[in-house]
Write a structure and sequence with these properties.
With 345 residues, the chain is mainly alpha-helical. The chain is 88% helix and 0% strand.
Length: 345
Amino acid sequence: MIQIRLTHLIALIGLFVVLYLLTALSDIMLPFVLGFALAYFLDPLADRLEALGMRRSLATLTITFIVGVALLAALGFGLPILAQQISLIIAALPGYISDVQTWLLAQNVAKGQSELVAGMGETLLSGLQSTASSMLLTGLSFINLLALMFITPIVAIYMLNDWDHMVARIDEILPDEQVEIIRHLAQQIDETLSGFARGQILVCLSLGTIYAIGLSLVGLEGGVIVGVFAGLISFIPYVGAAFGMVLAGALGLGQFGFDLAALGMIAVVFFVGQFLEGNILTPRLVGDRVKLHAVWIIFALLAMGSLFGFLGLLLAVPLAAIIGVLVRHGLTLYMRDYVNRSKDG
């Protein structure tokens, strides 16, 4: 009993140490967290290559080369398109604002309300410009960019190569009395986390592609970047589609005016995306084994993002998965003890 309490105390101290380090070192932790995440996602592929007879080091180098080439190709193809789309939006927005203001005045809307619309549009334009400049000057500073470009791949390569050794070493130091329980919980956490994360990444990429192609076919200027962004933030349930529809609707209003057919087609794009996500993408790519409620995911993302910024957003889902598994395990033990006490009574 003393050993169990000592183990719990050590685990609690370790948790506080981790939280303190995340808070104190959040500025330099991002490359290491990303490297760990890449190694975690790519470990099953490395295991498959090992099963085919390839050495772990060669499997790691092969995977790194393929992922690196794919990433460079995606950036080389995608960044110019996204930059062009952003330029189109910023250049066209003043004209959109003027057209909407003219339409409002033609409908005998009060001049004050028309000026309010113009002021909101100018605020949106200045916000887009300041956001773009802040991303270049602060969010992607030279040091941060170097860290992400060089430290993240190095961390990922080392951890991917030594992943099985690290897991085996951790397994060796587990307390004998609780080793089976810890292994069982770790397996549940891995199944929940991998099922959600790997599946949700594919869902977000699929939705981004659907939205971008759909809005481009509608003829919306800037539709590619709106669709891609809406797809990427779709890991927050319902937020991606809602934000994308509002932004695309605002741009469509400026470009097409009050053309109900064009605005309706924009809405149809997002409704089709949501239908495909709910009935095909999420059931096939994520599955029913993931027991993370949408409200719990939203709370975890908002809470961790508020505490640790972008690093917190990366850690929110893993932490939610771990807490969810531990809570369900605790409830199972409580119910089992309650049933046993009821039988004894």
